[in-house]
Amino acid sequence: MIPRRLLRRFSVEDLRAAIRQKGNLDKVTALERKREKLQKALSRIDRKLARLNGVNGSPRKPAKAKGPGKRGRRRGFKVSAATRRKMRLAALRRHSGQRQG
Q1: Radius of gyration of the chain from Cα atoms?
Q2: Among the listed residues 51, 74, 76, the one whose alpha carbon sits nearest the alpha carbon of residue 63
């Protein structure tokens, strides 16, 4: 509520002009709020594009599913004696040429 002494200070025309300006200010503030929302949405889209394109425009390498992995037998999986025998014979055959030379 506006105090009476302020109302007495202004003429009717001044008060009407102030009311018109307030209406315009409401429109301006609504538009500014809308602009801020759109800028936030645009920045989200920019971040997503940067994530896809990489920092310097080249696409990032996709992350590997399980990492580089390890060589050899997986822990907790036993190899049967027959399989060990087959592996030994295969290794002997593989390296037989190297031993002769």
Answers
A1: 39
A2: 51
Altogether, the residues listed in the chain come to a count of: 101
Q: In three state form, how does the secondary structure of the chain look?
A: CCCHHHHHHCCHHHHHHHHHHHHHHHHHHHHHHHHHHHHHHHHHHHHHHHHHHCCCCCCCCCCCCCCCCCCCCCCCCCCCHHHHHHHHHHHHHHHHHHHHC
Q: Which residue has the tokens 């506006």?
A: 2
pLDDT digits (tens, 9 = 90+) for 45-101: 988 888 777 666 666 666 656 666 667 777 788 889 999 999 999 999 999 877 655
pTM over 0.70: no
For residue 30, what are the CA distances in angstroms to 18, 24, 26, 96? 18, 10, 6, 84
Distances (CA, A) of 14 to 1, 20, 25: 17, 10, 16
φ/ψ of residue 96, rounded to 5 = -65, -40
